[in-house]
Amino acid sequence: MSDSTPGPGTATGTAPGEIPQDAPQGPPRAAPHDPAAPAPLGVVRTPTGDAEVDAQLKRLADADRLTAGGHIEVYEDVHRGLRDALTALDARPAPAPVPAPMPPYNNRS
């Protein structure tokens, strides 16, 4: 009696030892590493509590998706923003408005 069920390790329509056309040929290959491709730097950005400074730190994350040639624009932008934030801290606050003089109080009766 002949059994038409394929044996272990064989696919339907193939002879024993033959590799089916649609069978995977070993482990999937990773894409070749391109050193010029953008790669996250993995730098942890800890919030400072100052909204303006934190916005600049968040902007640094843009460098992770750019090639090295695009980093300089991000770094210059962040540097300018941080410099402006520091300059604003050094600026003296505007003087408080002087209240209007009180009319003289005349107590004559």
Strand percent estimate: under 5%
Structural class of the secondary elements? mainly alpha
Unreliably modeled segments: none
Distance between the terminal alpha carbons, to the nearest Å?
Answer: 136 Å
Give the proportion of residues in helices: 25-40%
Order of helices and strands: HH
Q: Please tally the helical runs, counting DSSP H or I stretches of 4 or more residues.
A: 2
Number of strands: 0
Radius of gyration (CA) equals: 36 Å
Provide a compact summary of the structure.
By secondary structure, the chain is an all-alpha fold. 30% of the residues lie in helices and 0% in strands. The protein is rod-shaped, with a radius of gyration of 36 Å.
Describe the structure.
- This protein is mostly helical and 109 residues long.
- It has 2 helices and no strands.
- Helices cover 30% and strands 0% of the residues.
- It is rod-shaped.
- The termini are far apart.
Layout of strands and helices, then pairs:
Elements lengths: L50 H10 L7 H23 L19
Supply database-style keywords.
mainly alpha; 109 residues
